[in-house]
Amino acid sequence: MKQVILTGDRPTGRLHVGHYVGSLKERVRLQNSGKYDEIYIMIADAQALTDNAEHPEKVRQNIIQVALDYLACGLDPAKSTIFIQSMVPELTELTFYYMNLVTVSRVQRNPTVKAEIQMRNFEASIPVGFFCYPISQAADITAFHATSVPAGEDQMPMLEQCREIVHKFNAVYGETLTEPQIILPGNQACLRLPGIDGKAKMSKSLGNCIYLSDEPEEIRKKIMSMFTDPNHLRVEDPGKVEGNPVFVYLDAFCKPEYFQEFLPEYSGLDELKAHYQRGGLGDMKVKKFLNNVMQAELRPIRERRKDWEARLPEVYEILRAGCEKAEAVAAETLRGVRHAMQIDYFENGTL
Ligand code: TRP
Predict the structure, then answer these.
(1) What structural domains and CATH numbers belong to the chain?
(2) Ligand 1: distance of its center to the CA of 133 in Å?
(3) pTM of the entire predicted model
């Protein structure tokens, strides 16, 4: 079977290091593994509009920001098709048919939808479009017959819902759609990187993100202000490493060779953690090391981003060509769907 990837992001802001370790890094690795026949990376503008209907300018501005972040991380337009969701209107039509296969109570049980409704204080005023976004996401995935969806842990309920739609569709209309699987990052710390304030999730609205495009000085300031173990007051105090953002970030970003380079008095992360736990290691020293690690990891990304920023017409062209290619593939899937549903009225001459 053909191995196909589809994944994407809402263009509501620049991408941050949580996106990077949670999904982007994995996409680039999979892209370069040579194991995939086709890779589609979607800028989900239509989905972003489901809770930003009054701010189309915000969505519009961030399309290019997200595209730059993608290219900066090493997504290669020669290997991956980068496209914009609303430029593939076939996705909307698929969504409309899939809506008939899902109940309201099933969407209400989706844990990610539940959490997001709470976060946005929607309660009784949920836009219908927002409510339906898990269904639209199933359209995004199945339109490309994706077999794999590299995404963060928060997307698991979406994938589950997509698989249910695939089963239902194939059972009712005959074998047509392909069932996808999620690919989560292998490293536990990368599953859900906390914000610099220690809150469970990095989010633009909480103002607790380190962005891929941040300048070195901004990164340093953010790391130096990071939340740590609140009970680790004096250097001599024993400290906690579990759930301590500074150590979670080290788990996510540190490579063994960084100890050689920046902190040769320790053999590795285990020794550093042990010292912190027994006391005698100050937050400042750990933060300085983390800053060196993050600067080393983010420098090549920021530099590549600047290169692409200087060539914006090429970025537009990459997106334009990507949209065209994606639409052709989605149109082919839609033809199959319409045929299975017996609504391809003028295809075989008899009505
Ligand atoms: N929901 C994803 C996000 O919040 C974006 C997205 C839309 C997506 N459709 C998708 C991700 C399909 C994976 C597969 O960023």
Answers:
(1) 4-192+312-348 (3.40.50.620), 216-306 (1.10.240.10)
(2) 9
(3) 0.94
